[in-house]
Amino acid sequence: MKRTASLAVFFVVAVALGAWSANPFVVGVEQSTKDAWKTVTSQFEATTGISVTIQPIALNSIAQQILQSAAKPTKLQFVMIQTSWTSYLARYLQDLTEADSQLRAAGIAPAVDGGRTLGVPIPFAQGWLLSVLAWPDDRASAIQFLIAAGGGVPAATTTVAPKTTGFGELPPGKLAVSQH
Length: 180
What we know:
Elements: H1 2-21, E1 25-30, H2 34-48, E2 52-57, H3 62-71, E3 78-82, H4 86-89, H5 100-105, E4 111-113, E5 116-121, E6 128-132, H6 139-149
Parallel strand pairs: 1-2, 1-3
Antiparallel strand pairs: 3-6, 4-5, 5-6
């Protein structure tokens, strides 16, 4: 009896840990685009089996969410930003330069600012980009999500995974006064 109960507890814990470890991608989107994102994410989920959670954010709160994530990491991994904001928010966004060739091969012209690839244009939201705040554990799938969100055609295989620093890490050396 005790053995059966122990096995049942073990099975429940194993299933719970498996579900917990399969973290979905979390995407911060401007709230008026929520329905369009549901279409994109449901197609991506059906194709890849990777769950995507949409977090609607008011337009006047997006930049604030990005700045807060730099000080205190959030669950957001991807975020919509207006193209006019890239120069102001670039240092808070992950550099996608190592994935640039993959994005271009999929038919996407990524947004570049200061020599850094910062996001992909969103076809249904003129003047907006999808950028990465924090890389999910599976970078290859994250790049495929960027391609799907940008309306591109995913490659048969994904071989390039960007190398970036974590959100809580600072670049080596001193920061310029303008970066404080």
